[in-house]
Prior knowledge:
It is a single chain. With about 425 residues, the protein is an alpha/beta fold. It has two domains: about 5-145 and about 290-435, no CATH class; about 150-250, no CATH class. The protein is built from 21 helices and twelve strands. The chain has helices at about 10-15, 15-25, 35-40, 55-65, 75-85, 115-125, 130-145, 150-160, 170-180, 185-195, 205-215, 220, 225-240, 250-255, 275-280, 290-305, 310-315, 320, 330-340, 345-350, 380-390, and strands spanning about 5, 30, 70, 100-105, 105-110, 265-270, 290, 360, 410, 420, 425, 430-435. Strands 3-2-1-6-7 form a five-stranded parallel beta sheet. The protein has a three-stranded mixed beta sheet with strand order 4-5-9, with helices on one face. A two-stranded parallel sheet has the order 8-12. A hairpin with a 2-residue loop joins strand 10 and strand 11. Helix 2 packs across helix 16 (about 290-305), helix 5 (about 75-85) crosses helix 13 (about 225-240) and helix 9 packs across helix 13. The longest helix is centred in the middle third of the chain and has 18 residues, at about 225-240. It starts with a strand and ends with a strand.
Amino acid sequence: MGPTALLEKSFLQSLSIDESVLFDRFFIAVISPLFYVETLADLEKAVRQGRTPEQEVGIIARKTPEMNGVPCAHHTELCIANLLGAQIPMQGRVPLIGGRPVMVDGRSGMIFEERPEAEAFRRWQIGEFLEVEHRFAKGWRDALNSLDLMAVAAGMRAMGVNPQSCKTLDDAKQLAIAFVRSKDKSLDRLKFANLTLGLPPESEPFIAEQWEKAGFPSLAEYVPFAAYLLTLELFFQITLAADLISAERASNRQDVGYLSYLPFSMVFVSSDKLHRRIAQYFLRSDQSFVWGPDLKADLQSLVARYLALPQSEQEKGLMKFAAAPPQDSNCLITTLWNHHFGILRAQAAEAALSFDDATVQGDDFEEKRKSTRPFPAGGKELVEYLNRFGDAEGLPRDDVDFDVANPEVLSIKRQVHKRKGSFWQVPKDLKERPN
C-alpha cells in the first residue's frame, strides 16, 4: 500500500519486472482506461524489431500492478454522473464502478469483483488475445482522436475565447479557468461543454434541466469534475492554436488525456516530456509530479537492497519485509511516503498483516479500511474475517442504510501471483483455500 499514483504507460515500459513489483508494493496504482486502450492499441502498431505486437503487449501486461493496481472508472462516465448531480471526489481517491453492499457482524462493506480489464491483462500476460480485441484495437485508438477540432475552434470563437492572446502555458490555463468560472450564456456554455467533452447529445436536455434548477451557477461551482475536464480540454485546444504545444505530434492528444485522471491520485509519475511540461498547471497543492527516470533509479536501488536479504527473509514475502520503504533520506519513495502518507507510514509498518498459517480464497486480495471498531489483530483470524466479507451476499437496495462511498470495509478482489520476478509477493508457504 502507499500513496495513490497515476500510472503512465511509458514509465511502466521502462521498468524491469522486479522494479514493477516494488512499484506495485509501495503505491496504489491508479490505472486509467486510457492505459488499457494505449496498451491494446499496440496490437495495431509497429513495435521494436524482433517482437510481435502480441509479445509487446504481453510484456506491458506482465509489469502491470496486480496487488495494488486499481482500475479507475472512465472519465466520461464520471463527467456525465457529475453533470447529473453526483459528487465526484477529487482528493486522491480512486472512483470505482459497481460493487455490492454487504453487512457482516454489523459492519458495512463494499465488495468489488475483478474488473474485466484486469482479467484481460492476465490473459495478455500469457499471449492470449481474443479476436474481438484485435478487431477493436484500432478503433479504440482512433476514438482518442475523434474530436471535431474545427467545431471546437468555432465554438471557442463564438464564446469569446481567443487563443492568440496567450503567450504562455499559464495564460492558456487562466483563459480556460475563466471560461468555467463565468456565469454568462449558461446554455450556450453547456452546449460547448457537451461538444468539447464528447458527451452524448441526448444527455444535454437532462443536464440543462438539473443546472437550471440549481440556478445556473458557474460550471466550476456546480460540477467541479466536469469543469476540471473542460478546463483541461480547453487548455489543450488553446495551446495548440497558440502554437504552445505542437499539433504535429499525434500522441499529444492521448498524453493530455492522462491528466483527466489526475484528481484521483496523490502522485503522478510519468516519463513523458509533455507531462513534465504541463502537469504542474493541473496539480493540486497536495500532489506531486515525479519524473519517471528518477523513480526507476530509486526502484532499481531498492531491488538490489531487497535481493541482498537472506533467502529465508525473502520467502516471508514483500508484505512482511517491505511493509514500508526504508527509513532513508536519500530514498525518493520514502520521501513521497512521508510527504503524502504522514503518520500513516509508521502505522502501515506496525499493522503489516501476518500471513503465517493463514489462508485466503484463491488469489483474492482484501484491503482493510479504517474503522471505528477494532479488527481482528492479524494472521489467520483477520484473513478469515475479511474472507467472510468477500463471500457475503449483496444487500437488497432497500436494505442499504450506510454510505456506500465510505464503507467500513472495502474489498477489491483480484488474482495475483505468489511469486513475480525475483520476489515473493506473499509468503512462500501461504496456503490457498479451495474455490
